[in-house]
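Figure 3 (text version): structure tokens given as input.
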């Protein structure tokens, strides 16, 4: 049997990330969202002051360790975000509970990341596998963009989600470059088959904030579908395809590059505060300029970078006249409360559009 490798849920991107570790000759162990049981484990094992993202990832690894998974991999960070220390704390928590699972981090401490150096895959096979995984990431981006657009106009509630799940299942089963490209070509056809209402211009709302909350449906209470059911066209500003470009310094001059976002945010934020804080400020300015009706800022309670820039986002909101709904998430956040706040926010946006 192949050893198993656990990594935290990243929404639909988990399908692509699972493909990226196949070259390591391990079996991926993950899910598209944190389970309630895993979150409970993480909350019980983590320091109370830790953010929700840490508790969710820690619970996911504890759940994996209980099932005998041998390895885990945790994303890393640079700068002032505490994310750079998470894999060490998680390793300590696992050992204190008697689990032997080893946690890798994906940062560099030499020519190769530690996990690649440990499993030492054949270079050609590794590069081909990474290329297929990148194609899957870009296909997920295309699927989600189509779903955001169609869900706000669907005539049958849930039809968009059903179509998205069907094409994601096909993508998960695709194993070759040709098969992945074939799935991507079929994406428009899947969503064109969804019955829609002739709504020419639904409200447009952006989702900004901390990446794991933006991408984990349990942590954000499935806010994309909540907004879509209210006939709102959503744009989630964490796209893994763009993030990969920024990590490797590709597309330096693109609209979503880190350089462009820093330049946009500079009048309000001139220093690095870690995480995706500069992205949140820069994209708030971009949304105001591009005519979005409003935005929702999501962050786990206790997230230092995102909490640090909240006063700045409020200032941008006042200066550029774009409404902002702030949502801090923790293990006590009520789903009904999130739905109620989002519904009230959408009502405000509708009245605002009528008035204008």
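Below: residues designed for each position.
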């Amino acid at each position: 049997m192949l050893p198993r490798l656990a990594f935290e849920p990243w929404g639909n991107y988990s399908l692509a990330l699972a493909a990226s570790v196949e070259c390591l000759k391990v079996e991926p162990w993950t899910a598209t969202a944190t389970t309630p049981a895993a979150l409970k484990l993480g909350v019980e094992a983590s320091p109370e002051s830790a953010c929700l993202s840490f508790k969710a990832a820690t619970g996911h690894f504890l759940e994996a360790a209980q099932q005998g998974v041998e390895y885990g991999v945790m994303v890393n960070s640079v700068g002032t975000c505490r994310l750079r220390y998470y894999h060490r704390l998680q390793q300590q928590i696992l050992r204190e509970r008697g689990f032997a699972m080893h946690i890798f981090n994906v940062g560099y401490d030499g020519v190769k990341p530690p996990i690649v150096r440990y499993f030492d895959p054949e270079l050609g096979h590794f590069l081909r596998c990474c290329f297929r995984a990148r194609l899957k990431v870009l296909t997920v981006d295309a699927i989600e963009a189509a779903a955001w657009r169609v869900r706000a106009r669907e005539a049958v509630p849930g039809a968009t989600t059903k179509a998205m799940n069907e094409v994601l299942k096909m993508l998960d089963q695709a194993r070759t470059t040709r098969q992945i490209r074939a799935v991507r070509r079929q994406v428009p056809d899947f969503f064109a088959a969804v019955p829609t209402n002739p709504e020419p211009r639904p409200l447009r709302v952006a989702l900004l904030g901390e990446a794991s909350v933006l991408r984990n449906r349990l942590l954000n209470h499935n806010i994309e579908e909540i907004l879509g059911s209210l006939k709102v066209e959503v744009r989630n500003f964490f796209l893994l395809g763009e993030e990969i470009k920024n990590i490797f310094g590709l597309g330096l001059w693109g609209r979503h590059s880190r350089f462009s976002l820093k330049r946009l945010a500079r009048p309000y934020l001139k220093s690095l505060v870690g995480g995706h804080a500069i992205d949140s400020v820069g994209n708030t300015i971009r949304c105001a300029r591009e005519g979005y009706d409003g935005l929702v800022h999501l962050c786990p309670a206790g997230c230092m970078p995102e909490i640090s820039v909240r006063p700045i986002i409020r200032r941008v909101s006042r200066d550029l006249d774009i409404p902002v709904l702030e949502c801090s998430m923790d293990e006590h956040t009520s789903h009904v409360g999130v739905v109620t706040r989002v519904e009230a926010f959408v009502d405000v946006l509708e009245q605002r559009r009528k008035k204008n």
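The chain has a mean pLDDT of 91.
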